[in-house]
Amino acid sequence: MCIAMSMIITSLSHAVVSLCGNVTISLTVAPLISVPVMVFGGFLITVDAVPMYYKPLTYVSWYHYAFEAIMIAFFKDHGQIDGCQKVNPLFDIECSTGLKLITDQDFHVDNFWWDFAAVGAILVFWKIFGLISFVWRIRSKT
């Protein structure tokens, strides 16, 4: 999953640089694409806490699918989590077991293979988009 994520980011970078044509501009544009997708992908806030008008960013976020797959892979078969209380006064989540932690993050165990397919589809999209934008940039220069 980590290799697929690095390939997606590389493909996104190729597409942005090809579209912008200038490294300085592309260094400004790339975070404008990747940061909102990362923030609303489930890292900093749970998926159900994302406001309705930002929900589309959750569905196109490669971070969301990769993070969900990694969380499921690590915690699905994990029983009791040592040192994690059933009711924690500091946090609103109950992370007593691995499955409880997954559901508290608003992830679904059944989506494991769907997450791999989604990351693969997003990778193919950015690869094709990067190639098309690169060819467009080359042909517009000649």
Question: What does this molecule look like?
Answer:
It is a single chain. The chain is mostly helical and 142 residues long. It has one domain (2-131). The chain is 68% helix and 0% strand. Helix 1 (2-20) runs parallel beside helix 6 (112-141) and helix 2 (23-43) crosses helix 4. 21% of the residues are buried. Its main location: membrane. It is a multi-pass membrane protein. InterPro entries: ABC2_TM (IPR013525). This is ABC-2 type transporter transmembrane domain-containing protein.
Question: What fraction, in percent, of the residue positions are helical?
Answer: 55-70%
Which outline best applies?
Answer: elongated
Sheet having the most strands:
none
Q: Structural class, from helix and strand content?
A: mainly alpha
| Poorly predicted sequence stretches spanning 5 or more consecutive residues | none
Total domains: 1
- Number of DSSP helical runs: 6
Q: How widely separated are the two ends? A: 39 Å
Number of strands: 0
Q: Order of SSEs, N→C?
A: HHHHHH
Overall mean pLDDT score? 86
Structural Rg: 18 Å
Share of β-strand residues: under 5%
Write a brief structural summary.
The protein is built from six helices and no strands.
Which short descriptors sum up this protein?
about 140 residues; mainly alpha; 6 helices; about 70% helix; about 0% strand; elongated
Topology:
Layout: H1 2-20, H2 23-43, H3 55-59, H4 62-75, H5 98-104, H6 112-141
